[in-house]
Specification:
With 456 residues, the chain is an alpha/beta fold. It has 3 domains: 5-143 and 263-325, FAD/NAD(P)-binding domain (3-Layer(bba) Sandwich); 151-260, 3-Layer(bba) Sandwich (FAD/NAD(P)-binding domain), CATH 3.50.50.60; 345-452, FAD/NAD-linked reductase, C-terminal dimerisation domain (Enolase-like, domain 1), CATH 3.30.390.30. It has helices at 14-25, 40-44, 47-65, 81-106, 157-160, 177-189, 208-220, 271-274, 310-325, 354-359, 374-379, 408-420, 425-430; strands at residues 5-10, 30-34, 109-112, 115-119, 122-125, 128-137, 141-143, 169-173, 192-197, 224-227, 233-236, 241-244, 250-253, 256-258, 262-264, 297-299, 339-341, 347-350, 364-371, 385-392, 398-404, 450-452. Strands 1, 2, 3, 4, 5, 6 and 16 form a 7-stranded mixed β-sheet that branches. Strands 17-18-21-20-19-22 form a 6-stranded antiparallel β-sheet, sandwiched between helices. Strands 10-9-8-14 form a 4-stranded parallel β-sheet, covered by helices on one side. Helix 3 (47-65) packs across helix 6.
Length: 456
């Protein structure tokens, strides 16, 4: 069969754009299809605008700390969401323009519209049918809107980032990183926040130390925590939203954020009819080489529901393009992927949790520290920094680094290089500290807090 393109990519988010541009660099004929704006969730509705809102929220803490450092604030500061939203819209429009120019400059043909895989190697976009030797699914994920009866009408992170005004009070439903991040930000921007989640602590899947510390910092920021208390149903009222927690217990809020999770964008694409298998959550099933069950068809990023992080999608996309069109195939190692939670103070982590490391059979030396950083100690602040290193007791290799505190994402990103290179605790001990920094504590923890063996 004679194909019009060597690769057609469904989805012009970070992963899809990275894969398409790399394939074109190798000389492939490439098309990319996008039903919405070019740039995807991270650039337009996720990582980038979320962190811009975090920067805005951080000023509340800075204003509160400033008098302790000699600053006199004569006028009470006031946050204007509309001004931030306008600046955010301009920035995301600028970034979308850059993405479009990158595709054009790489020679990737952009088709705007809804894609449907009508048969193997055939992608329909409106009245146009694109044929391709290879098809890549990079359609990402979207907020879950049916997790609780009545929650469909509530705002998600998409709508939050487009608000012109903030509610005086709100409920955030969910205990994952999106819920925790926005609860932390909204509280600092002036909303009274109540956080409802099913588990005993927020951030299921993170190390226990981080979860406990996150709960303490949210409480210190004024967030009202409700562990083990997810609403059974939500209803619209004249004044806002009514959350029901049983027969007699209800609470009303003017605004509710649905942060109950995300699901892969696979509906309406014709995947199962074409022979591409999906799991119970609607994620595309793939093997280690990113192959779906249909030969010549691949998937990367959040649509596979593995490591749902933008840099992972980018790395997978580039690896696939190199494998298909470059000199040799290659795979992406997902065993040590650093991640962050941009609450305040932020969390960063690389490697397994303590429970995961024990379950994998490691006997652990656990190194921990908990302190008030210099900036807080000087003004009598209460915010603390907590760090943990997990070391394999037999090999001395550092398996994981976990941190909550100022600059945690920047610090742990650098530590991820050392862990990827196989650094041992002896390497950390031989490293001379940079003083005065918080990061130096990672090389100054000399004695383990405890040694733990796997159960059984």
């Amino acid at each position: 069969m004679d194909f019009e393109f060597d690769l057609v990519t469904l989805g012009a988010g970070s992963g899809g754009v990275a894969a398409s541009r790399r394939a074109a660099l190798h000389g492939a004929r490439v098309a990319i299809v996008e039903a919405g704006r070019v740039g995807g969730t991270c650039v337009l509705r996720g990582c980038v605008p979320k962190k811009l809102l975090m920067y805005a929220a951080q000023y509340r803490d800075a204003f509160a700390e400033a008098p302790g450092y000699g600053w006199q604030l004569d006028t009470p500061p006031r946050f204007e969401m509309a001004r931030w939203a306008a600046a955010k819209a301009a920035e995301t429009a600028r970034l979308e323009g850059i993405y479009r120019k990158l595709l054009e400059g790489s020679g990737v043909a952009l088709f705007e519209g809804r894609a449907v895989l009508e048969a193997p190697h055939r992608v329909r976009v409106g009245e146009r049918v694109l044929t391709a030797r290879h098809v890549l699914l990079a359609t990402g994920a979207a907020p879950v809107r049916d997790s609780i009866p009545g929650i469909a009408g509530c705002a998600t992170s998409d709508e939050l980032l487009d608000l012109d005004t903030l509610p005086p009070s709100c409920a955030v439903v969910g205990g994952g990183y999106i819920a925790v991040e926005f609860a932390s930000m909204l509280a600092r921007l002036g909303s009274k926040v109540s956080l409802y989640f099913r588990d005993r602590l927020p951030l299921r899947g993170f190390d226990e130390m981080l979860r406990t510390a996150a709960a303490a910092e949210l409480t210190a920021a004024g967030v009202e925590l409700h562990p083990g208390s997810a609403p059974s149903r939500i209803a619209r009222t004249a004044a806002g939203w009514l959350l029901s927690f049983g027969e007699d217990r209800v609470r009303e809020f003017p605004w509710v954020l649905n942060a109950t999770g995300r699901k892969p964008n696979t509906q309406g694409l014709g995947l199962e009819a074409a022979g591409i298998g999906l799991d119970a959550q609607g994620a595309v099933r793939i093997d280690a080489g990113l192959n779906t069950a249909l030969p010549g068809h691949f998937a990367i990023g959040d649509v596979t529901n593995r490591k749902n992080l933008t840099p992972v999608a980018i790395a997978e996309g580039r690896a696939l393009a190199d494998s298909l069109f470059g000199p040799a195939p290659r795979c992406v190692d997902l065993s040590l992927v650093a991640s962050a939670v941009f609450m305040m103070p932020p969390i960063a982590t690389v490697g397994p949790t303590e429970a995961e490391a024990l379950a994998a059979g490691h006997t652990l030396k656990v190194f921990e520290t908990d302190f008030r950083p210099m900036k807080q100690a000087f003004i009598g602040g209460s915010e603390r920094t907590r760090m943990k290193l997990l070391v394999d007791a037999d090999s001395d290799r550092v398996l994981a680094a976990h941190m909550i505190g100022a600059d945690a994402p920047e610090i742990v990103q650098s530590l991820a290089v050392a862990l990827t290179a196989g650094a041992t605790k002896a390497h950390f001990d031989r490293t001379i500290a940079m003083h005065p920094t918080a990061a130096e504590e990672f090389v100054l923890m000399r004695e383990p807090a405890r040694t733990v063996a796997p159960a059984g």
